[in-house]
Amino acid sequence: LISKMMKPPASRYCFLYLFLFSVISLLCPVTSSDAQALLTLKSSIDPLNSLPWPQGTDACKWRGIKECMNGRVTKLVLEYLNLRGTLDGKSLNQLDQLRVLSFKGNSISGQIPNFSGLVNLKSLFLNNNNFSGDFPDSITSLHRLKVIVLAENQLSGPIPMSLLKLSRLYVLYLQDNRFTGTIPPLNQTSLRFFNVSNNKLSGQIPVTPALIRFNTSSFSGNIELCGEQIQNPCKDSEFGPSASPAYPTGASSKPSSKRSKLIKIIAGSVGGFLVLFLISLLVFCLVCKNRGRKEGSVGEGRTKAKGVVGGDNGGGGNA
Q1: Residue 298 and residue 282: Cα distance in Å, rounded?
Q2: Is the pTM of the predicted complex or chain greater than 0.70?
Q3: How far are the Cα atoms of 167, 294, 298, 312 from residue 306, in angstroms, in the given order?
Q4: Domain-by-domain residue ranges, the chain?
Q5: What are the angstrom distances between the C-alpha of 186 and each of 76, 160, 165, 233?
Q6: What order do you get walking across the sheet with 200-204 strand by strand?
Q7: pLDDT by residue (tens digit) across 99-126?
Q8: Region (Disordered) spans which residues (predicted)?
Q9: In the Cβ-directed half-sphere of 119, how many Cα atoms lie within 13 Å?
Q10: Are 149 and 122 in contact (CB under 8 A)?
Q11: Which residues contact 30 (CB under 8 A, 6 or more apart)?
């Protein structure tokens, strides 16, 4: 009985285990796989040794590693470090717990690699570099992505329609590149910051609820763009409604077409009724006028007849 009383309850062991696990998770260094991936990345973009990452030390304390969680790197920010070369996509994709990735303000060149392995990425900053090639379509498969900043590079080609798949998109900055083609009809309600100025875009700017809120500064520097947002009406012969639909076609367009048909039917009925009413009124007026003329002529005839009779009677009396 005494031994049972002295024995601590199992709940205490559970609490102690959870506490120790939490402490270890916070204090443990980055896993060797993340550290090795970072060193491989460094070898491809740091010829000037701007990143003092000594092998065998805790990578969570390395320059640019802003956050770790459970021994995994979650925030990598390498900005304005005079990095150059091309990004090693294979090593980057091994950092699959990244939430934030930034190479802002360097001289990294080449194509943007495939980022499909960064399934947890929320913010991507690659602006102010020398990236070239097409818009990386792999970015649009990262469904948690909210912020995309690719401004001030040498990217070209079309802006992909697959951006519509990013339902959480909050920031899209693509200004000062060489993008061509039309602007996709972005309609994410989450979109608050948008800029495609100083590219080579053309056609009508889609009039979606998401894009209509942005002013001229978001579209300037694209001489072949037209639309309400930049006070430059599109010519019907060049850019008809089908060239840049305001909304995706589908079931949502059917109610509006039904309403327009109903309005036309009502307008036609009202117009027909008014025409019939006016014709009837005109006929009625003509009938009344003719009837008045006939009655007037009959009255005059009777008056003349009475006068003649009266004259004859008077002559007989004098005789």
Answers
A1: 25
A2: no
A3: 100, 19, 13, 10
A4: 24-249, 250-279
A5: 29, 11, 10, 20
A6: 84-85, 107-111, 130-134, 154-158, 178-181, 200-204, 224-226
A7: 999 999 999 999 999 999 999 999 999 9
A8: 237-256, 293-319
A9: 3
A10: no
A11: 38, 58, 59, 60, 65, 68, 71, 72, 73
- In angstroms, the Cα distances linking 56 to 31, 39, 62, 88 are 11, 11, 11, 21
User: What is the 8-class DSSP label of residue 41?
Assistant: H
Class of domain 24-249: alpha beta
Contacts of 173 (CB under 8 A, 6+ apart): 127, 148, 149, 150, 151, 193, 194, 195
Q: How far apart are CA 85 and CA 43, in angstroms?
A: 9
* Secondary element (H or E) of residue 258: helix 253-318
Backbone angles phi, psi at 183, to 5 degrees: -85, 130
CA 84 to CA 247: how far, in whole Å?
Answer: 42
* pLDDT at residue 282, as a whole number: 75
Whether the Cβ atoms of residue 79 and residue 51 lie closer than 8 Å to each other: no
pLDDT reported for residue 276: 72
pLDDT tens digits for range 132-189 = 999 999 999 999 999 999 999 999 999 999 999 999 999 999 999 999 999 999 999 9
Per-residue confidence band for 230, with pLDDT thresholds at 50, 70 and 90 = very high
For the chain, what's the residue count? Answer: 319
Residue bearing tokens 């008056």: 303
DSSP state, residue 60: G
